[in-house]
């Protein structure tokens, strides 16, 4: 009986060690905590700490880490507030957003590469999360149209995918698919650059053997779509000033709550990714309360 119990504990410990959890979110706008209009510093910190408590294998960020990219102080605040991630040695895979490039371009890129030295010289890159998940982080401030350098790079990475890979997460800032807004909200509608990327994914031959997931931000809310076999997610609830959306029939998320400060959690289970949208229940509270507002499963082809 004792030997069985020890064996069970060892097996459980091994399973936990092999557990693959990916957190995805974006639009935090780290900056001086005195700034409370463009971003919510209290909620921002709640999210950082809650994400750390998930003990993720990796964190995927869809951009707008700083409020103003040319301000080194904004990255210093990011570094300070995300200390729990570094204490846990959690890999962080960020995408360039429009706020990363807000200001002098040379200063903006230097600040980004100083904070993320492993990316120096790169504006798009590939990461592996275990054997089954690959993240292709893209720069939506650069062309994503057919024949562009970035799409040629994507094509080659897909051709070179290792056999065990079952899921490819495309991580970028501007969404290729989103609820279509009018008036002032129209400025966040999908642009031709990202629409061209969605058109490319529709015909990419690798979609027959791996599942494509597109994680974007820019819209400070949460949206979920399935188009042409591709899962499109908008996860922009990292702390930046919230933005309301008018959900159309194709948006698979039907929640009416607002604002949606949140993150996405993916847990790999065999040939499936079990996903949850975990939301701050009451941003005005003095202590955080969390609720799961969306659950879905993504299966490999």
Strand order of the largest sheet: 3-2-1-10-11-12
Poorly predicted regions: 1-17
Structure class: alpha/beta
Largest sheet: 6 strands, mixed
pLDDT average, as an integer?
93
Distance between the termini: 42 Å
CATH class value: Alpha Beta
Number of helices: 7
Order of helices and strands: HEHEHHEHEEHEHEEEEEE
User: Which CATH architecture?
Assistant: 4-Layer Sandwich
Whole-number count of domains: 1
Name the beta content range.
Answer: 15-25%
Q: CATH homologous superfamily name? A: Metallo-dependent phosphatases
Rg computed from alpha carbons, rounded to a whole number of angstroms: 19 Å
Determine the CATH topology.
Purple Acid Phosphatase, chain A, domain 2
Would you report the number of β strands? 12
Quaternary arrangement of the chains shown?
Answer: single chain
Percentage of residues assigned to helices: 25-40%
* Inertia-based shape: globular
Describe it.
The chain has helices spanning 2-17, 41-53, 72-81, 83-87, 105-115, 149-159, 192-203; strands at residues 21-25, 58-61, 92-94, 125-129, 133-137, 167-171, 211-216, 222-227, 230-235, 262-269, 272-280, 290-299. Helix 3 packs parallel to helix 5. It has one domain (16-299): 4-Layer Sandwich (Purple Acid Phosphatase, chain A, domain 2), CATH 3.60.21. The longest helix is centred in the N-terminal third of the chain and has 16 residues, at 2-17. It has seven helices and twelve strands. Strand 8 (222-227) and strand 9 (230-235) form a beta hairpin. It is globular, with a radius of gyration of 19 Å. 26% of the residues lie in helices and 24% in strands. It is an alpha/beta fold. Residues 1-17 have low confidence and may be disordered.
């Amino acid at each position: 009986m004792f030997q069985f119990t020890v064996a069970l504990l060892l097996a459980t410990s091994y399973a936990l060690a092999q557990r693959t959890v990916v957190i995805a979110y974006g639009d935090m706008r780290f900056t001086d905590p005195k700034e409370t209009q463009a971003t919510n510093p209290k909620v921002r910190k709640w999210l950082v700490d809650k994400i750390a408590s998930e003990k993720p294998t990796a964190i995927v960020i869809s951009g707008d880490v700083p409020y103003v990219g040319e301000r080194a102080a904004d990255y210093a605040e990011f570094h300070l507030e995300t200390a729990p991630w570094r204490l846990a040695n959690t890999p962080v895979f960020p995408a360039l957003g429009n706020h990363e490039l807000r200001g002098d371009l040379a200063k903006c890129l230097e600040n980004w590469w100083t904070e993320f030295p492993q990316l120096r010289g790169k504006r798009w890159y590939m990461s592996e999360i275990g054997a089954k998940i690959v993240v292709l982080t893209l720069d939506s401030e650069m062309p994503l149209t057919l024949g562009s350098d970035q799409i040629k790079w994507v094509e080659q990475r897909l051709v070179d995918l290792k056999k065990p890979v079952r899921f490819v997460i495309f991580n970028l800032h501007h969404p290729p698919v989103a609820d279509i807004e009018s008036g002032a909200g129209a400025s966040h509608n999908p642009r031709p650059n990202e629409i061209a990327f969605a058109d490319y994914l529709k015909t990419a031959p690798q979609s027959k053997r791996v599942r494509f997931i597109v994680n974007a931000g820019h819209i400070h809310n949460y949206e979920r779509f399935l188009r042409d076999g591709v899962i499109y997610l908008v996860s922009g609830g990292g702390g930046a000033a919230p933005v309301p959306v008018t959900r159309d029939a194709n948006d698979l998320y039907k929640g009416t709550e607002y604002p949606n400060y949140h993150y996405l959690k993916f847990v790999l289970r065999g040939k499936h990714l079990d996903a949850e949208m975990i939301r701050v229940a009451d941003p005005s509270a003095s202590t955080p309360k969390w609720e799961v507002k969306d659950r879905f499963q993504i299966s490999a082809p």
